[in-house]
Amino acid sequence: MGCGGTLFYPLLITLSVALITYNIIISANAPLKQGFPGRSSSSDDSIDPVIELPRGGGFRIRTDAKKTRLFHTAVTASDSVYNTWQCRVMYYWFKKVKASAGPGSEMGGFTRILHSGKPDQYMDEIPTFVAQPLPAGMDQGYVVLNRPGAFVQWLQQADIKEDYILMSEPDHIIVKPIPNLAKDELVGAAFPFFYIEPKKYEKVLRKYYSEERGPVTNIDPIGNSPVIVGKDALKRIAPTWMNVSLAMKKDPEADKAFGWVLEMYAYAVSSALHGVSNTLHKDFMIQPPWDTEVGDKYIIHYTYGCDFDMKGKLTHGKIGEWRFDKRSYDRSPPPRNLTMPPPGVSPSVVTLVSMINEATANIPNWGS
């Protein structure tokens, strides 16, 4: 079955119960099936019940029709103040950069996938799809565990015109027009993360990616974001991603090994299970303050705190005399006109704060 080991069977039983509970709750609003259109609802022994993948390999996508290269940008978010202000800034820059790109741009539409289960006050400002969250307590405080299921619902229920999807995050700012970096529907484009190390955790990953499927190096060192992938491919990957994420979270060994990047490992595994590889693009994004220049990058990812003294020197983990850290604004959005960094601070940080200031200055009712 590709997920051997005595530890896995009790996990499978627990997971099955969890998924049944999840589907019952979702069906109160819109039915959510683990399979996609075309999949028989009858029992099929050729289907792996955990990863939703036909035994024996990946899948083939029909190529009889000419496909366009437009991609749809999608970002998952909760309705927290913290996620919301980041989404508003992100969408401001998405619109501005797309408008500057001209008629040949491959940037298509945008959707915030809101996994709070109900609309919020920004539905008219940001194109939004409302997804149902996991049942209370199932995420065990790991909120991003809602992401895979939210994508499953969106992909099944939304009318997505584009043939490719860019999975992004609230704390991404698009700096310049992004081309479709994916080679084709089965070869996506992704940013490589140094801390995603499949070889290091081979023993754990073999529970989900068996030796019969190939070397563990088939699992790319990526998360789900930023990734550009074919829409049809993602429709196949997403249910597996959801199931593997839940299984890993319930597996003490996997949960301990992967910690806060567990859902990233789950996506990398699921992509490999479905035969979707990724071209790794280090220039996809930068992460200040460690990346000091914007250069030719497409996205600024402001996941790390930026702390400097007044001489422009990075203080390395110590709260600086000048700082910008998104976590400082978890209960209220940052004010307009943030203080700019002192002289000597790296250009990437200066650009980040300048872009946030421009967005907040132009977004209506900021901070209200």
From TrEMBL:
Keywords annotated in UniProt: Glycosyltransferase, Membrane, Transferase, Transmembrane, Transmembrane helix
Lineage: superkingdom: Eukaryota
Subcellular location: Membrane
Start and end residues of each Hydroxyproline O-arabinosyltransferase-like domain: 71-366
The UniProt record lists the keyword Ubl conjugation: no
Predominant cellular place of this UniProt entry's protein: membrane
Matching InterPro entries: HPAT-like, HPAT/SRGT1-like
Regions that span the bilayer: 6-25
The keyword Transport belongs to this UniProt entry's keyword annotation: no
PANTHER family cross-referenced by the UniProt entry: HYDROXYPROLINE O-ARABINOSYLTRANSFERASE 1, PEPTIDYL SERINE ALPHA-GALACTOSYLTRANSFERASE
UniProt-recorded name of the protein: Uncharacterized protein LOC104771004
Organism: Camelina sativa
